[in-house]
Design a protein that fits this description.
Elements (H helix, E strand, L loop, with lengths): L2 E5 L2 E4 L4 E8 L8 E6 L6 E6 L8 E3 L7 E6 L4 E6 L8 E8 L4 E3 L3 E6 L1
């Protein structure tokens, strides 16, 4: 059974830093691409960052507007993917989701809320 358990969200001051975590089990974590999305209230989820599979070079990719502030990484020993956010801005306040997929199924984490205070 595939499970994605997120942690690390919460309140952060504008300009501060935050790291989101997503622990993955029951899934070939070492071999697949992984993704982060975010969702604003009443909006569709939007892709934020992705990390290609190791076979494809483990290349990080980002929403253009987030380059330089967000960093995605994978710890294969802990089966965990991270999203490091620095210089957090009010527009980063959203619910963040990790995502993995097989050829037939998409799996999501439960979501973690990021709240930004000014």
């Amino acid at each position: 059974q595939v499970k994605l358990v997120q942690s690390g969200g919460g309140l952060v001051q504008s300009g501060g830093s935050l790291t989101l975590s997503c622990a993955v089990s029951g899934f070939p974590f070492r071999d697949k691409p992984i993704y982060w999305y975010r969702q604003y209230p009443m909006k569709e989820r939007e892709w934020v960052a992705g990390l290609t599979s190791p076979a494809a070079g483990n290349v990080p990719q980002y929403l253009e507007s987030l380059k330089g502030r967000f960093a995605i990484s994978r710890d294969v020993d802990r089966n965990t993917v991270y999203l490091r956010m620095i210089n957090v801005q009010p527009q980063d306040a959203a619910t963040y989701y990790c995502r993995v997929e097989t050829e037939t199924t998409v799996y999501w984490g439960q979501g973690t809320q990021v709240i930004v205070s000014s």
